[in-house]
Structure prediction request, 364 residues.
Amino acid sequence: MGKSNSTIELKQVSKKFKNSDVINRMNLKVHAGEFLVLLGPSGCGKSTTLRMIAGLEDVTEGSVLIDGHDLQTMKNDGKAIAMVFQDYALYPNMTVYQNLEYALKVHKVDKQVRKQRIDQVMDTLNLADYADRLPSQLSGGQKQRVAVGRGMVKKSKIFLLDEPLSNIDVQLREKARDELQKLHEIDQQTIVYVTHDQLEAMALGDRIAVMNEGIIQMIDTPDNIYNQPANLFVARFIGTPQINIIEVVLQNGEMYLNDHPLLKVMGHGELAQQKYYLGIRPENIKCSMTPKGDYSLPAKIDSIVDYGRFIQLSLKLANGCLIKSIVNSCDFTEDDQIYIDFVESDTVLFDHSTEKNLYWGKHE
Prediction:
């Protein structure tokens, strides 16, 4: 894709602080021009990974390669990588314009080109009216936009962003997200973006790396991460409302919840007759007032919440387990006895001991 982007590779990278492992033998390849999102709960090692790619943290073991060259031995003049920090890191004695211009001046970018780039970015991020203000005169969201803008004007091959939109209010966050995507389409920079917000990750990433406790649990497209999560952790971390996970038993070609058959198991003779976890997204549960057949499961409506876009039902099963269903419209009321049905291809089956996806209902 030309010279506007770089590849990033982490090979068997570990990072220890004192005696605790923050990152554990991580392997990661970011393609040239890719928008990769690192997603996971607080403390999972996302920001540490980003800082190691930026060269701000040394690796304890392994190597970080930029375009195949070891970062440790590279002369990093700051041109190749731009980074946006969560805490802004703005120069307090410089105006918004000067903050945006500083790195371009240092790298001796032509004055006319500097102005053109800065004007474009300020326009994109709604900062034109604040060009002469100092950071102390800005709100948290405005400071964050200046920090993002400073990364954008550099047009570096690699753009690293650490929770860059966390302090921006919701309306502007969506606009900033759209602008980042547009910028990526135009400049084709290699972007690594850290967030704990799964909706942001799903909206932005070409691929998402879901992390937990210093380990990448799964790296794939948003579609695959949502529909075929590699394990229970990924399944539960992605999706709002959360995926329903129920404990089932396979017996004589049927999946049972307690003593009630849920599904006829078709063509999976290799599955042992034992316990499994069955996952089903709330939108895939079929609800009706009357049973559709032997596999319809009775449930009682515990609560109904209307979100406008959809209606969420909380359903209580005979074993006391609560599950969520999403419907577009409903004639049900609280305490109604209804029936729910599952379709095998809409479910995900997890091994009971390893909690890994067995890929049983996968569409080929």
User: Anything to note?
Assistant: Residues 170-187 form the longest helix (18 residues). The chain has two domains: 8-237, 244-351.
